[in-house]
Every structure is written in structure tokens, then in C-alpha cells.
Design brief:
- Helix content is 34%, strand content 22%.
- With 351 residues, the protein is an alpha/beta fold.
- It has a single domain, classed as Rossmann fold, CATH 3.40.50.
- The radius of gyration is 20 Å and the shape is globular.
- 42% of the residues are buried.
- Mean pLDDT is 80; it is low at 1-41, 60-83 and 345-351.
- The structure holds adenosine-5'-diphosphate (ADP) and magnesium ion (MG).
Length: 351
């Protein structure tokens, strides 16, 4: 079995295809010119000027000799029908009650962490979600994962309404969603080798997988994320931060998810490592037809990867647009402020 090609039928359609002539990468719903991945140019405009100040966009890509400004614009989805929503979220609310004051007689306050969110995610796209800390991004992703049950609203994945499933069915469906978190050191079990970590994740989907097949798949996963399979007997602490995030990404891919939610996956990494991890995610999208929600507080980072961007503010989506268009002509004041604050967000002096 290969990661991309031989998925079980019920899981079916997320596999990528190479057409053999090297020109294009085919998935079921999208067709990407291969070279677009690395050669697209950013149009001159206000958005491009804002990105010039961003260290990630200044850093260049290791080994490529070029700057991402010239070489790594997000890939447009070609030949994709926008009418097909793979994940459909409607009027989602996740509220928390918080009691202020003492044990007796304190007032209960409602925190509307997710406050009426509707989102469509298309198959094969990278949807960026940006907003300042505390605006509800992680609560939204935990609700999509069904780790939190929403207060109200609907979440439909590939035709199945998730919010009404009984909890054992939810547990099974949760395999379809995998997360990558900010801190891979905290999210990986320090006592498990890379092999054990990946094997466990593969077995979640294929409990009866044979030993040699398991080994083959672990090797393949490690190669897919740019790790040397000879290191599979090592423990997380023996790797660098960037390598650990690669392990976390491999683990997320192992159960063959339909959707990967990456919540601030590069926020803890150095800028040069950030671009390596972002490029890896781009590659995976192209090769595996990965569908992803990519979350960051940093609009410059989101712009690097996302096809479409949603801006979240105080539990609500306040703006949505194709990445380039949103950057060049933001409609909402808050989005303008996010763009204007790019250098500040990443700790650079204002020009
Ligand atoms: N389990 C919880 N109980 C109470 N309040 C919470 C809980 N989780 C998050 N919140 C609150 O919900 C809001 C959104 O938090 P979060 O989703 O973590 O935002 P973000 O990921 O954008 O930083 C914040 O005000 C936070 O304090
Ligand atoms: Mg968060």
C-alpha cells in the first residue's frame, strides 16, 4: 500500500496522482501545474509590499537560492469546482460559561469563543485562519475535531453531519481529522520512538496491518516528510525542533485523514525552519491532495501557504477571500490592521 495511491475505498478520493509525464499533479478534484508550486510570482501591489517586511518572506528558501517572494506564491486551485464543499460548517457556536466571584453567589459569564461561524472548506485546498490570540481559533478547531461539542450549529464532513453522531461514532470519525500543534515536543510521547509513534497511528486506521507492511509504511511516511527512515528508533528529544514537527506531521498523516488542522504549527520555530515546514506542507498538499485548515496569528505566515484566508475576530469570521485578493484589497478594518502590523507581530522594528 502506498500513502497516496492505495487508500481504502471508503476513504477513497484524497490520493494524489502523478500523470507520468511530469507536467502536472493530478488529484481527484484538483489539477495543479507542478512548476506553479515553486515558480509563481506575486503580483506587485500593496499586499506584496507588506510581505516584503515579513522575515519569513525575506528569508528565502534554503537550497533554492531564491526568495519566496519570487518563487513560492500560494498555488491557485485550477479546475476545481468551488461549489463542492468538503467540510461545511454552519452557524457554529461554542460557548463557555465562566463563573466570576466566589464559590457562592458569583456571576456566570458566557464566553462566546466561537460565535456564529460558517465555513466551507473545499477538497484539496489549504484554508488559512488568522486572528489575534484569544479570538477563538483553537476553540474552533477543537470543535471541528469534535473534542468540544458545539453549543449549536452544524459540521458536515463529506456529507456526514458530525454534531449529531453518538460518541462512539464520533471517536471513529475523529480519525478523519488529524491535528498538528504548535509544540511538537508536548504533543509527541517522549517515551515512544518515531517507529512506535507512527506504528500506533497507522494501526488506528489499520488495526490488523502485518508487521512488514507496517515497517514499509513507517519508512514511507518518514520519507514523505523528509526524515531519514534510518532514524526511526530514535526518541523525540534526539531530534531538532523542525524535525520533531516533521514527526508530528507524519503522525498526523499516518491514519490517512481527510482533513488536517494545523494550529500554529510553525509559531515556535525559527524563521528558516518555518519556511522548510511550510514548504513541506505545500508539497504534501500537491502530492497527497491534502485538505488543510492552517491556523496562525501571523497573517504573513498564513499568506505563505493558504489558497483562501478567513480572518477571525472575537469569535466571528469578519473577512474571507482568496489569499492574494484579501491581501491586496482588504475590506475589513481589522484585516487592514493585521496587514499593517505584520512586522510588529513578528517582533521587527517598524520601518
Ligand atoms: N476550556 C475553556 N474554558 C473557558 N474559556 C475558554 C476555554 N478555552 C478557551 N477559552 C476562551 O475562549 C476564547 C478563545 O480562546 P482560543 O480558542 O484559545 O483562542 P485562540 O486560539 O485564537 O488564541 C478565549 O477568551 C479563551 O480564554
Ligand atoms: Mg490557539
Amino acid at each position: 500500500m502506498s500513502l497516496a495511491r492505495d487508500r481504502p475505498p471508503e476513504h477513497g478520493k484524497t490520493g494524489g496522482r502523478k500523470d507520468g509525464r511530469g507536467g502536472q499533479i493530478r488529484t481527484d478534484d484538483i489539477l495543479l501545474p507542478k512548476q506553479a508550486l515553486y515558480q509563481a510570482e506575486l503580483r506587485p501591489g500593496p499586499g506584496r509590499e507588506a510581505l516584503r517586511r515579513h522575515p519569513l518572506w525575506q528569508a528565502g528558501i534554503p537550497g533554492s537560492g531564491g526568495s519566496p517572494l519570487a518563487t513560492l506564491a500560494p498555488v491557485p486551485l485550477v479546475g476545481h469546482s468551488p461549489a463542492v464543499a468538503y467540510l461545511e460548517i454552519r452557524d457554529l457556536h461554542t460557548h463557555f460559561s465562566k463563573r466570576s466571584g466566589g464559590l457562592l453567589g458569583g456571576e456566570t459569564r458566557t464566553i462566546r469563543a466561537v460565535d456564529g461561524v460558517s465555513i466551507d472548506v473545499r477538497k484539496g485546498e489549504i484554508l488559512g485562519l488568522v486572528g489575534e490570540s484569544g479570538c477563538g481559533k483553537s476553540t474552533l478547531s477543537r470543535t471541528i475535531m469534535q473534542l468540544l461539542r458545539p453549543t449549536s450549529g452544524t459540521i458536515r464532513l463529506d456529507g456526514t453531519e458530525l454534531t449529531r453522531l453518538p460518541s462512539d461514532a464520533v471517536r471513529r470519525r475523529r480519525l478523519d481529522f488529524q491535528m498538528v500543534f504548535q509544540d511538537p515536543y508536548a504533543s509527541l510521547n517522549p517515551r515512544m520512538t518515531v517507529f512506535a509513534t507512527l506504528a500506533e497511528a497507522i494501526r488506528q486506521r489499520h488495526p490488523k496491518v502485518a508487521k512488514d507492511e507496517l515497517t514499509r509504511r513507517v519508512n514511507e511516511l518518514m520519507e514523505t516528510v523528509g526524515l531519514n527512515p534510518s532514524q526511526q528508533r530514535k526518541y523525540p528529544h534526539e531530534f531538532s525542533g523542525g524535525q520533531r514537527q516533521r514527526i508530528a506531521i507524519a503522525r498526523a498523516l499516518a491514519p490517512e485523514p481527510k482533513l488536517v488542522i494545523a494550529d500554529e504549527p510553525v509559531s515556535a520555530l525559527d524563521v528558516s525552519i518555518q519556511s522548510q515546514i511550510l514548504n513541506l506542507l505545500k508539497k504534501l498538499r500537491a502530492e497527497l491532495g491534502l485538505t488543510m485548515i492552517f491556523i496562525s496569528h501571523d497573517l504573513g505566515v498564513v499568506r505563505y501557504l493558504a489558497d483562501r484566508i478567513l480572518v477571525m475576530y472575537r469569535g466571528k469570521i469578519v473577512e474571507e477571500g482568496e489569499a492574494e485578493q484579501l491581501f491586496d484589497s482588504p475590506q475589513n478594518d481589522y484585516t487592514r490592521r493585521l496587514i499593517a502590523s505584520i512586522p510588529k507581530l513578528v517582533g521587527q522594528p517598524q520601518p
